[in-house]
Structures are given as structure tokens and as C-alpha cells.
Amino acid sequence: MVLISGMILFTTIIGFIIVIEVLFHYTAAITYLKSSSLFSGISVISDMPEILIELTPVIITSVLFILVQLLAFTLAYRKVLKVRPIIALRKVGEWGEKDVSR
Fold first, then answer.
1. What is the dihedral of CA 65, 70, 72, 73, to 10 degrees?
2. How far apart are CA 100 and CA 71, in angstroms?
3. Which of 68, 29, 67 is nearest to 45 (CA)?
4. Alpha carbon of 66 to those of 11, 62, 72, 77: distances in Å?
5. What is the pLDDT of residues 8-29, one digit of tens each?
6. What's the whole-model pTM score?
7. Which of 9, 35, 55, 95 is 20 to 30 A distant from 42 in Cα terms?
């Protein structure tokens, strides 16, 4: 349970880092293309916004998403801890026997 939740949290954080990286590269590329004299006459580049998305909404969304995931992990982990191990093993064993008899 902890391993799975850790992997999901790790994936979320890496996704956030990738989004930030893409936004930085977009801003750098558009700013460079607007400032260079080679592309100054092209109206498509000059009409593009330099900042695609502000950084604040991206951070707020990512923090909210991570907090909700942590809350869900905590609730799921508490529910798992309430079941005694021997009962869980019996239920898994009963489920396995039903599958074998088919």
C-alpha cells in the first residue's frame, strides 16, 4: 500500500516538474524568437503570448492535487489497518478457492 501510494505521489510530482519545464521552455523560445531580428517580421510569432500560463495557477493546482492524494492515501491506509491480517488472509483464501473451482 505504501509503495503504491509512494509511486503515485512520485508520478504526480514528476508530472508537475515536467509541466513547469515545458512552460519555461515555451516562454524562453517565444521570447527568443520575438527578440531575434530574423523572425521579427513574422506576425504569427509576434502575436503569440510570451507567457502561456501563469505559474501561480499551476502551483495551486498541483498542491491541491497532491494534498487530495495524501488525504486519500491516509483514509485508505486507515481502512486497511482496521482489518486484522488473519481475517484478510482468510478472505483472500476464500476468494482464491472460488476461482479454482470454476
1. 140
2. 37
3. 29
4. 11, 6, 10, 16
5. 778 888 888 898 899 889 888 8
6. 0.56
7. 55
Cβ atoms of residues 1 and 76 within 8 Å: yes
Please report where in the chains the cell 476464500 appears, as a residue: 94
DSSP letter for each residue of 31-69: HHHHHSSTTTT-HHHHHS-S-SS-HHHHHHHHHHHHHHH
Task: Let me know: does 74 contact 9? Beta carbons within 8 Å.
Answer: no
Cell numbers at residue 77, please?
491506509
- CA dist., res. 13 & res. 70, Å (int): 12
* CA torsion angle 67 69 72 74 (round to 10): -70
What does the CA dihedral 54, 60, 66, 71 come to, rounded to 10 degrees?
Answer: -160
Determine the Cα angle at 48 with ends 55 and 25, to 5°: 45
